Amino acid sequence: MAQRAMQEATFLILTALATASQHGYGIITDVTQISGGRVRLRAGTLYTALDRLRSDELIAVDREEVVDNRLRRYYRLTPKGSQTLATEAARLQANAAVALTRLNASRPGLAGGGA
Amino acid sequence: MTDSPGLERGYRRLLACYPRAFRREHAEEVLAVLMASAPDGQKRPRLAESADVFWSALKMRLRGPGPASENRPWADALALFSLVAPLFLLLVDILNVAWPYRLQLGTRNSFFAQAFGPHPEIGGLPLLSVHIFTITVAAEVLLAVLVLLGLRWAALAALVGTAGYWAAAGQSIPWIPYPLQLLTTGVFIVEAAALVASPGPRRGRQLVNWRVAVMLAVAAAAVYVSTFRYDMSTFPGRLVAWQPSAATFYLAGSVVLAVAVVILAVVWKLTPYLLLLLAAMFWPYAIQLAFVLTGGTTDLLGNPTPRHLVALYLPPVLFACWVLLTAVAPHRSRLLPS
Q1: Whole-number Å distance between alpha carbons of B153 and B61
Q2: C-beta of residue B76 within 8 angstroms of C-beta of residue B270
Q3: Nearest chain B residue (CA) to A70
Q4: Mind listing the pLDDT tens digit for each residue in B109-168?
Q5: How far is the C-alpha of A103 from the C-alpha of A112, rounded, in Å?
Q6: Do B60 and A8 touch (CB under 8 A)?
Q7: Taking residues A91-108, what's their average pLDDT?
Q8: Of the candidates B82, B49, B43, the residue with the CA atom closest to the CA atom of residue B197
Q9: Distance from first CA to last CA of chain A, Å, rounded?
Q10: From the CA of A41, how many Å to the nearest CA of chain B?
Q11: Is residue A21 within 8 Å of A63, Cβ to Cβ?
Q12: Which residues contact B6 (CB under 8 A, 6 or more apart)?
């Protein structure tokens, strides 16, 4: 059976963790930045996703800190999470490449950076 | 970011929506994110934040104790149940045969005295002379042997075959005691789900111990004592001049034994998931018993309406569906986001 495509929020969360571990609020701000402000995660949504990603072993707890008497738990990608993200990124890239190629073929100059 | 105490209290109240296990691990962490996300001057949770937390908590609760393959205590409880439920059912049936009790009809009603004789027995040894009961018990022995051997799918096939036989034969011989019918149905519904969704009775064999055995033996005793009180309120037990003290004795005895089951489970730290499964299994009989004890003049099974059947069987059926869903959840939710 074909594997389901990863939804955007999941993709962005994994992307936020691709370079370094981050705590919850850090992930929210990073996802907002990565998506150009289009995706703004709320706390409940984020932790439902983190809970599922942890059970899927795509992320793991990296460390904990207490800052200003508040608990910060940092999450990191697991090797399985990195592999999954890489696979999904390649899939999206391939799809985008096909889309751009076809657009360029049918309407030259419309796609490909609008040069 | 704000440090409003009122806002923090509001968020803490919201977090109470989450399952306890999640709160224990993540409450302070989520609270920190909520407080960090709140703009200065915010005094209470906003509607959108509250809805988001509610929705998130609801999804976690619907997910239940977790996919069976990922939640070891839940998976183990299912495996243990898949082993012990058939053994429990067999024990209850044997109890009802091994210790017969006589209904002293006497001459109160000559018609029934003539029909049943002066000392009819409900439950007890006369059941052995009923063809359907003998075959059913034999099938239950087979089911018990199969789960003891750890043969999950063979046990499931035996269960389905027994249920089919019971349903077909029960149409022509309706007087098999209702407690046994209801308990058997409850066991079969939950057991079928447990056999499919759990790691199987072989895993259950590794987990079973004398404490579980004692607890279930006490539960079987509770069922047995309660059947006396049950039969006092149902035909033909109503025809008997029972001593009022006997009703109190049987009712109190079954309640004490049922409470003892819970106490033993708590003291011996048996997984609450096992109690949840047992509760679903007991549901049909417990509802029937409650109906009779609260003044119901007929058995729910005697002339069942659709409403009766829904009250008796829908909860355990829904529970079994939910158990099955927890088994497929890992495949269904793979890579789905929040």
Answers
A1: 30
A2: no
A3: B32
A4: 565 556 556 555 555 555 556 666 677 778 889 999 999 998 888 999 999 988 888 777
A5: 9
A6: no
A7: 88
A8: B82
A9: 41
A10: 10
A11: yes
A12: B43, B44
Phi first, then psi, for residue B122 (nearest 5°) are: -105, 135
Instruction: Provide ipTM, 2 decimals.
Output: 0.84
Pairing status of strand B121-122 against strand B101-102: antiparallel
Which amino acid is located at A63 in the chain? R
Q: Which residues have C-beta within 8 Å of that of residue B241, sequence separation ≥ 6?
A: B104, B106, B108
- As a whole number of angstroms, the distance between CA B231 and CA B237 comes to 5
Amino acid, res. B49 = E
On whether the CB atoms of residues B122 and B101 are closer than 8 A, the answer is: yes
B30 to chain A, any CB pair closer than 8 A? The answer is: yes
Closest by alpha carbon to A82, among A56, A58, A102?
Answer: A58
The pair of structure tokens assigned to B4 is 């409003």
CA B147, CA B144: separation in Å to the nearest integer? 5
Pair of tokens at residue A40: 């703004």
pLDDT per residue as tens digits for the range B286-323 = 888 888 777 766 666 667 778 888 888 899 999 999 88
Here the tokens at position B218 are: 């006490």
Q: Which of A41, A55, A87 to mutate to test the interface with B (most CBs of B within 10 A)?
A: A55
As a whole number of Å, the end-to-end CA separation of chain B is 24
Place of tokens 């079994």: B320
Q: Looking at the complex, does the CB of residue B49 fall below 8 Å from at least one CB of chain A? A: yes
pTM, to two decimals? 0.57
CA dihedral B193, B197, B202, B207 (to 10 degrees): -90
Closest CA to B240 of B114, B123, B126, B109: B109
Segments in chain B forming alpha helices (H): 5-15, 20-37, 47-62, 72-98, 110-116, 131-148, 152-169, 178-197, 201-207, 210-232, 244-267, 272-293, 306-332
B28 vs A71: CB contact, 8 Å cut-off? yes
Amino acid identity, position B89: L
